[in-house]
Design a protein that fits this description.
Layout (H helix, E strand, L loop, with lengths): L2 H26 L8 H21 L17 H33 L6 H24 L1 H4 L21 H26 L5 H5 L6 H25 L10 H25 L2 H15 L14 H32 L2 H10 L4 H14 L2 E3 L3 H4 L5 H7 L33 E3 L2 H10 L6 H4 L6 H7 L11 E3 L5 E6 L1 H9 L1 H10 L8 E8 L10 E8 L9 E7 L22 E2 L1 H7 L7 H20 L2 E2 L2 E8 H5 L12 E3 L6 E8 L3 E2 L2 H13 L12 H16 L2
Parallel strand pairs: 7-8
Antiparallel strand pairs: 1-2, 2-5, 3-4, 4-6, 5-6, 7-10, 9-13, 10-12, 11-12
Helix pairs in contact: 1-2, 1-9, 2-3, 3-4, 3-6, 6-8, 8-9, 13-20, 22-25
InterPro entries: PInositol-4-P-4/5-kinase_core (IPR002498), PInositol-4/5-P-5/4-kinase (IPR023610)
Keywords: ATP-binding, Kinase, Membrane, Nucleotide-binding, Transferase, Transmembrane, Transmembrane helix
Organism: Paramecium pentaurelia
Length: about 700
């Protein structure tokens, strides 16, 4: 056996061990599946495929090259090449995904996008499989000659005389190198420059950066080897070229696999789990596992730190907005208009169009509000935050919560942008609401909530929700598409709200856009948020059941497969669950008739404005128990109706999530679900606005309100 054989086998064995460990930890350790764990898992699978290719081709390194006995057209060689292509292309495309995910994780920390991650993985898998199958199917057309590479009999048939193939590889590898270098620069640009992180700046996130650096070297070597392989000049073909290429390629691949494995090993929570598993294997007797917090320390701490400042900035902006909005809008004239008559329907649309174009409200966030009630450790950190431009004078025990300097003048770079404030604030007065933003969004009173939210990942939808400590208000992120959808329908929205003052649509009382560039000039993150009333108005423990219903029965059962003794107050139930548990809403008949009438009018409004995917949210709340736990009498919200069968239980009713348009995405969702079910008439959730409204009224409203 030659030196090349043993070298290839050695690298293959190391790669198999590392990649198998990565795959095993992903499958066995639930906490390790969070991003970027999913990308690392995919890279581990690709590296495992590459290792199999090395083992399959290792016998050929000892066979002398014989052009008359070349096996490139054999099925064996085709499958060897297919395995290589699958591993190489998969790792290449997932390296792009790795860099992109790292940049997203360190900046866009306020919310996640589960659908985007699904699309990212789908694209990577489809791209890898399609290209590999094309190369497998058209191998004879691609291959033009037997390349004298390290595999002799089974040669690499991808890069040969067809000039466009090496050119495509040059382009892709060069683009990846630029992307990887940008990612490394992006990491250190967005690394918080405080005491904790600055002292460890060279080591922070080093495990992630090390892998990217190894892929850069691999890409550079791939470009060099491709150039040498496709060159006809004899000076570029040294005698030991095959050995040098083999050792270099295997070294960089194995280095990358080892670094990914090292990322897993360095996690203390995973180490503890491995130790416990090994202990159980050799010592079957019960052993109490030591609980350990999952801390992939440096990367997660960076995310939490940035997330904390983003949440504080959001609340600070709301406080400043409401502290200054009445003066900005000439409140005396506003109240006079409200007292004089009802909302002027005909005048609304005309004035609203003008407001959308000229009367937006800009505000620069005040640092004093962003840093309220920091801990001693956070105070020490904040004093050195040069990148965050903090004012040390604000870090005293008597925090100044009031804005002394608020800028609305054009030409300034705003931190927060409020859409059409005149008419949203008009809705406040129109509904006889009064918001004490300084209390509801106080950074001091919401400190515990902020601390808890730093550790959440956005849930299934990935959106950011903030419930004020007094349970009165909700802040929720919306997408650019949802923002544009609402902007286009604002005249109709205000028209409907003025005509039906007791509409059960969960009203929007403000839309705000936050520019997060003040954290780091390279972030470029803008969040859009809506301000709405909290439908429950009470703490979560007093909510006995929550139903989210659409009028469909397809995939609309939350209790399916759940244990019978499950706590119903801790999960969101759906249409089938309501039919099994409640049947219908048991409220006084006149109230039932009104709710039914209003829900029909609201559904018709959505149909006329081409909106869909809205839900009827019904919450059963024990107000008797809640009133017994508070010092003062709390006013019931107007959308709360007492149960006729259960004392002290009130139904809170509202329509939520109504900013979805009928578009190509919803068309594709409908078609794909019907295709998977092999039933073109399947009543899936995604339907046209007309069908959706019809189903909402007939299958839901008319059914549960009698």
């Amino acid at each position: 056996m030659s030196q090349k054989f043993y070298t290839l086998i050695a690298f293959a064995c190391v790669n198999v061990v590392c990649s198998s460990f990565i795959v095993f930890t992903y499958l066995a350790w639930k906490a390790g599946r969070k991003s970027p764990g999913d990308i690392v898992f995919a890279l581990g699978l690709c590296q495992l495929s590459t290792s199999i290719y090395w083992m399959m081709s290792s016998p050929d390194v000892n066979t002398p090259s014989n052009p008359d006995n070349n096996l490139n057209d054999s099925s064996y060689c085709k499958w060897v090449d297919f395995t290589q292509n699958l591993g190489f292309l998969g790792q290449f495309i997932y390296n792009f995904a790795y860099c992109f995910t790292m940049r997203q994780e360190i900046t866009n920390v306020l919310k996640t996008n589960a659908k985007f991650k699904l699309l990212l993985h789908s694209f990577c898998l489809v791209f890898t499989l399609c290209i590999s199958l094309i190369l497998f199917a058209f191998q004879p057309q691609i291959q033009q000659r037997a390349s004298q590479t390290i595999m002799n009999k089974c040669v690499n048939t991808i890069i040969l005389e067809r000039n466009y193939l090496p050119l495509a590889l040059y382009v892709f590898e060069f683009v990846y190198i630029i992307s990887a270098l940008y990612t490394i620069w992006y990491f250190y640009q967005n690394l918080p420059n405080d005491v904790t992180f600055r002292t460890n700046k060279k080591s922070s996130l080093i495990r992630y950066v090390m892998y990217i650096i190894s892929t850069i070297f691999l890409s550079c070597f791939t470009l060099l080897s491709t150039f040498i392989q496709t060159s006809e000049h004899p000076s570029y073909q040294p005698a030991n070229l095959d050995t040098v290429m083999m050792i270099s390629t295997c070294s960089f691949y194995t280095l990358g696999s080892g670094i990914l494995c090292y990322q897993r090993v360095k996690n203390p929570a995973l180490l503890r789990k491995i130790v416990n598993m090994v202990h159980k294997a050799f010592y079957p007797q019960p052993k109490k596992e030591v609980e350990i917090v999952d801390v992939d320390t440096q990367f997660i701490e960076v995310q939490k730190f940035i997330r904390m400042f983003q949440i504080r900035s959001v609340l600070a902006g709301i406080i400043q907005y409401f502290n200054n909005i009445e003066e900005y809008l000439d409140n005396a004239q506003l109240e006079e208009n409200v007292e004089k008559s009802e909302f002027d329907v005909d005048r609304t649309s005309q004035l609203l169009i003008q407001a959308r174009a000229t009367q937006n409200y800009d505000v620069t966030l005040n640092d004093n509000l962003i840093r309220e009630t920091l801990s001693e450790e956070q105070l020490a950190i904040a004093k050195t935050l040069e990148k965050y431009k903090l004012n040390n004078q604000a870090l005293n025990k008597e925090f100044n919560f009031y804005v002394k300097e608020t800028q609305y003048t054009k030409g300034k770079n705003p931190m927060m942008f409020a859409l059409a404030p005149k008419y949203f604030y008009y809705l406040f007065k129109f509904d006889n609401l009064d918001i004490d933003a300084h209390d509801s969004f106080s950074l001091e009173k919401n400190a515990e909530l902020i601390e808890n939210m730093i550790n959440v990942d956005g849930g299934k939808s990935g959106e950011f929700f903030f419930f004020s400590y007094d349970n009165k208000w909700i802040l929720k992120t919306i997408t650019d598409r949802e923002l544009n959808s609402f902007r286009q329908r604002m005249p109709e929205y205000f028209h409907h709200m003025s005509e039906y003052r007791k509409s059960l649509i969960n009203k929007i009382y403000g839309i705000f856009s936050y520019d997060m560039n003040y954290i780091s000039s390279s972030c470029g993150i803008i969040y859009h948020m809506v301000l709405m009333r909290n439908i429950s108005q009470v703490p979560r423990p007093f909510v006995k059941r929550t139903f989210d219903m659409k009028g469909s029965e397809v995939a609309r059962e939350a209790l399916k497969g759940k244990p019978k003794d499950i706590d119903l107050s801790k999960i969101t139930l759906k249409d089938v669950d309501f039919d099994n548990l409640e049947k219908w809403i048991k409220i006084e008949q006149s109230q039932s008739d009104f709710v039914k009438f209003q829900l029909i009018k609201d559904a018709e409004f959505f149909k006329n404005t081409y909106l869909l995917d809205y839900s009827l949210l019904i919450m059963k709340i024990d107000w008797g128990e809640y009133q017994g736990n508070v010092d003062r009498l709390v006013d019931l919200p107007q959308n709360a109706y007492p149960s006729q069968e259960e004392p002290n239980i009130y139904y809170h009713i509202a329509i939520i999530d109504y900013l979805q348009e009928w578009n190509l995405s919803k068309m594709a969702e409908k078609a794909s679900k019907q295709l998977l079910a092999m039933n073109p008439n399947l009543n899936v959730s995604a339907q046209t606005p007309e069908i959706y409204a019809y189903r909402f009224i007939n299958n839901l409203v008319n059914k549960i309100f009698r």
